[in-house]
Design brief:
Length: 137
């Protein structure tokens, strides 16, 4: 099997298990005293679910059990973020933190940039797996 699917999903797992919690476990998100406790619960749930599903996807690709399924699960997580971002005006969402700050570099939100890169890598990994004969799931 091509190394691209494994590399792409490993990067996503690292982002989901390390980078995202680093960005969200702090005063602007998870432990923000201004956030309703119910919103903080959902944020914790989202972090744990995305991390666990990313690790599960990595396992499926790494072991060759069901690489398409593993990549698909992780693609759903990341594409869902982009859909939430694109529809943010419908529910009052924003990438601006509650303190008015934004994690941006050169006017581009870091989370959005990383998500676009990871989705691209995952799609390339999925394509590589799909081209291989005898690859199930």
């Amino acid at each position: 099997m091509s190394k691209l699917p494994l590399i792409s999903i490993a990067l996503v797992a690292v982002a989901s298990v390390i980078f995202l919690p680093f960005m969200e476990i702090g005063e602007t998100h998870l432990i923000n005293p201004d956030w309703p406790s119910h919103a903080r619960l959902h944020n914790a749930w989202q972090l744990l679910t995305n991390g666990a599903l990313s690790i599960f996807g990595l396992f499926l690709v790494w072991k060759g059990i069901a690489p398409k399924v593993g990549l698909g699960i992780v693609l759903i997580i990341n594409i869902s973020f982009m859909i939430a971002l694109l529809s943010a005006s419908l529910y009052g969402g924003s990438m601006i933190n509650s303190d008015g700050s934004e994690a941006a570099f050169g006017g581009i939100n870091i989370g959005v940039a990383i998500s676009v890169i990871l989705i691209t890598l995952l799609l390339l990994g999925y394509r590589a797996v799909s081209k291989q004969p005898n690859v199930k799931g």
